[in-house]
Model the fold of this input.
Amino acid sequence: MTTMTQKNTTSTKSDDIAPLFAKDYNVYINHTDAGGIVYHANHLVFFENCRRDWFTKLGLNGYFLQTDNGEIQHFVVSQADLQYKRAILLDEIINVRIDKVELKPASIIFYQSIHRNTADNGTTQRANAHLLSSTKIVIACVQNQVRPEPIPNGKSHADTPNTAMTTTPMRPIRVPKKLHDAIEQAINEQMNGQP
Done:
């Protein structure tokens, strides 16, 4: 098992830890309920968007990787443990972070957080970032096992039972080397203070 973390992980305050990746997101009306508070499930959406944006920054094609023989490898959330601290409000700009990553043989564990940024003396610099929510999300690596079957002439998908979907459609696999190496390199660069 390889555990990859950023430096200063012994600190107890999340604001003192340099995140592995962070990005600001705008909170729009479609993220909120009737009271202008971000719906609880949308915290997961912001965490997902942050992971996707980090993968893009690493030069990876999001959640789908193709092997040399054309098989598709992708990722599914197998566990999500969220803690809600404060409400996220309409029209805020929030900072979503990847604080720590652990690489396991067939999964990746993300420790993430969402922060409210406050300005100091009317400037746009972040003087203080209040923790709004945090999560531990386990992403399992899987490979599709379902192969498309030809549809008989004159029939549609609705007329043809999908027997392939009644069996296991995917199997767990090891974290792909390309992904493992990209994450490991990003963590090493962060630990050495490189952008």
Summary: Confidence is low (pLDDT under 50) at residues 1-15, 121-125.
